[in-house]
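#lab-general

N.A. 3:47 PM
ok so I finally got the sequence cleaned up, no stray characters, all 96 residues accounted for. can someone with queue access submit it? mine expired

B.Y. 3:52 PM
send it over

N.A. 3:53 PM
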Amino acid sequence: MVVIAGLVLVWMIYADQGIEMKPEIAVTEPPLILVDGKVPPKLSNFVAHMQYIDENTCLRCHATEREMNFGSGPVIAKQMAHEFRENCVACHMLPK
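B.Y. 4:20 PM
back already:
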């Protein structure tokens, strides 16, 4: 009985169950939304992009193209390349 229980335990640990662990889709897959026929760019790994607050926060930098300085040198915030749409992160992925 002990031998059979040991074999079952070994089988449960080492057997290929046919289950493949998949990484989170949000990490590896771009959003399914196309904007003007293009995949929206991922947000850069910039401190202001690390957490989504709301659309108005995005527009403070991206309503027009402007040069900004956050202490590490000048950064050019590009103007939003499309008309205003609510919920920026529905298309643009936040960096991890």
